[in-house]
Design goal:
- It is built from 11 helices and 5 strands, in the order αααααααβαβααββαβ.
- By secondary structure, the protein is mainly α.
- The protein is flat and about 105 Å long.
């Protein structure tokens, strides 16, 4: 007649391994893999569980232990640094991590039990008392304070504020956004072309105020080349860029920003790029 044996219930294979290590009082960094594997397999044989998901976890760990046991019998592998690899290293890291989480769970459980024994009492102070403000005696508050002392305190505060100012950064200027319209540059170039049939790009830029004005003017010149309004030539590299008007000056008398905006849309520069601004 068989004797029924009640097995302990464990959360998973790592919980079982940790129990066996603590039961045998062995060093977790130097696990006797043969002895622990035999005890683990003995527990597996005694399990009677119909849940395949739970059983599969224990069986996977059993296969891992058998694999480590076999690798322990073979000559030890050597890494590129010349150190011998321990087949148990990965298992040890898993056990240490599980042990840390397990103890953290115990700590949180104890805190939960302790908090259940704490009783709280809602405040019952009348509103009249909460809203009460003690009157301030100005004479007592000022005491022996005089105008001379107030002036001294004020000068000390201003001195500290001055010391906080960075002497270098305080001289930095403010960078402001500069709006430059491409359509306005079309009008400017067309007006210039009415007075000059052939001119250099350098002459065209003499009245430009900033780099952004120069860039937008250059974009206007490129678009006019595409529309066939001007002819541009350069005799050699880094030489003077010469621009020549195609057509008569009267053609540009009626030029306006709105008229040229339509040509920009049809010519290839999108409306979103019509207004250029410096960062």
């Amino acid at each position: 007649m068989g004797i029924p044996v009640k097995l302990e219930v464990f959360e998973g294979p790592l919980d079982l391994l940790l129990h066996l290590i603590e039961k045998n009082k062995v060093d977790i960094y130097d696990i006797p893999i043969v002895e622990i594997t035999n005890q683990y397999m003995e527990y597996i044989r005694g399990m009677q569980h119909e849940d395949l998901n739970v059983m599969s976890e224990f069986l996977v760990m059993a296969a891992t232990l058998l694999d480590i046991k076999c690798r322990m019998l073979l000559p030890k592998e050597v890494t590129e640094e010349g150190e011998e690899e321990d087949p148990r290293q990965e298992l040890v890291e898993q056990l240490l991590q599980y042990k840390m989480y397990k103890y953290m769970a115990f700590e949180l459980k104890d805190r939960e039990l302790d908090s259940g024994q704490v009783m709280y009492k809602s405040p019952d102070i009348p509103e009249e008392i909460l809203e009460y403000a003690e009157p301030v005696d100005l004479d007592q508050l000022l005491g022996d304070l005089t105008m001379a002392k107030l002036g001294e305190v004020f000068r000390e505060i201003m001195k500290r504020q001055a010391e906080k100012i960075d002497p270098v950064r305080s001289k930095f200027g403010k960078i402001e956004k500069e709006e430059v319209s491409l359509s306005d540059k079309f009008v400017y170039v067309h007006e210039y072309m009415r007075q000059h049939k052939r001119f250099s790009f350098r002459q065209l830029l003499l009245e430009q105020k900033s780099k952004m004005h120069i860039v937008v003017t250059f974009l206007a010149i490129l678009e006019m080349m595409k529309l066939g309004e001007i002819h541009v030539e350069q005799e050699n590299t880094c030489g003077e860029i010469m621009i020549e008007r195609i057509g008569e000056a009267d053609e540009y008398k009626e030029a306006s920003g709105s008229d040229r905006s339509d040509s920009v849309h049809n010519g290839g520069i999108s409306g979103t790029e019509q207004d250029c601004s410096s960062d």
